[in-house]
Amino acid sequence: MGRYFETIRIKDEQRLYEASIHWSIYIWPSFWTLVTLGVAIPFTVFWFIAAAIEQSTSEMVISNRRLVAKFGLIRRTSIEQRLSKIDSIVVRQGLLGRMLNYGKVYVYGSGASLSPFGPMGNPLAFKRAIETAIADGETAAIPQANEQAARL
Question: Strand 66-71 and strand 77-82: pairing?
């Protein structure tokens, strides 16, 4: 993990938290294989392969400057959102997600942008890591502002 992040990392940027796609993406192919008593195996094999590729090629990283996510192998979707532009964070977990501790995290930024992350394991920890990174960035900016004010 972290291959994409390392290629786009900017100066003085540090990885704070990394999440991965939760194993729950295998639930539906497994369910349909069992329900059809194995008749659907030729179809669900492709579903399993697609899920495995999605899980192995996706990465979600929180750095000290931004959120970075990359999904997909052939058709790539990447998300990069500065921490200073984040307005709100929403965690969505259904009943099964609560039981298995997975869910999706939606990050709303200024300008009505929406960045979906997941499904990931422990989405509340991801949300907490974002909030901590934002708070640490704000407290780091205060001494710099004080130094600039003292120079004036």
Answer: antiparallel
Distance between first and last Cα of the chain: 46
Alpha carbons 68 and 146: distance in angstroms, whole number: 30
Instruction: Give the model confidence (pLDDT) of 134-151 as tens digits.
Output: 999 877 655 554 455 455
d(CA 119, CA 141): 32
b/e per residue 25-59 (b: at least 16 CB within 10 A)? beeebeeebeeeeeeeeeebeebeeebeeeeebbb
- Residue 12 tokens read as 């003085």
**CA gap 109, 119 in Å, rounded:** 20
Residue 56: pLDDT band by 50, 70, 90 thresholds?
A: very high
Reported pTM: 0.83
Distance, in Å, from the CA atom of 72 to the CA atom of 66, rounded to the nearest integer, reads 20
